[in-house]
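Exercise: predict the fold of this chain.
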Amino acid sequence: MPVAVITGASKGLGRALAEALAARGWDLVLDARGAEVLGEAARAVSAHGTRVEALPGDVTDAGHRAGLVAVARELGGVDLVVHNASALGAEPLVRLAELPLEGLRRALEVNAVAALGLVQEALPLLRESARGTVIAVSSDAAVEAYGTWGGYGASKAALDHLAAVLAEEEPGLRVWAVDPGDMATDLYAAAVPDDDAPRPAPGHVVPAFLRLLEERPASGRYSAPALLEGR
C-alpha cells in the first residue's frame, strides 16, 4: 500500500484528506499537536481498514519530524508528504504595524521551515518511491495582498517558493503547492473571528487533491477551485 505522511491531520483539511486517502487504501502517518483530537481522528480514519499511525507533536521539532518518517519507513516507505500544518502569526490577524515579530517567526517556522525539514527527512524514501510526491498546502494570501494577512501570506509565499525550487532540484518527484481556496476551518475562525459568512467544508476541496494524485500533472502551483471546475 502507498504511505502518506500528513501534518495538521487532526481536523479540517488534513483530516478530510486522510479520510479520503484511507478510503482508497493508503496507509497513513498523521501529525498534530493535540494528542486527544489526533487520536480520535486516527481511530475514525482507521475504520477504512488501512494502517493509521498517529504521532502527536510539533512539526518545528526536528526529533518529531524524524519520528514521523521513521514510522512511515516501518509501514513501507514514503510515497506522499502533505504539509498542512499552519500557524497564523497572530490570532486574530492584525495589521503589519501590530504584528508581533515572534508571531511572524512562528508562522515562518511552522509554515515554511518545518515543511522543508520534513521533506529533507523524507527525501531518501520519496526518491525510492515510484510516485514520490510532496504537497504543500498554500493560500491565496501567498500571492494576493490582503490587509492583516501579511505575516501568514509571507510564510505561505516562502513555502510556495521552496516547493518551486524543490521541483527544479528533484525532477523525479511531483511537487505541488496547492491553494485550497475558502474553507470553514478552525484556522480561519481564529484568523477572522467576526467573519461568519458561509464557507464550504474542507471535504469539499478534497477531490481537487485526489485529482492531482490520480492525474499527476507537472510540478507547480495549483488552485483547488480551478481543479474542481475542471481547469
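Check your answer against the key: The radius of gyration is 16 Å.
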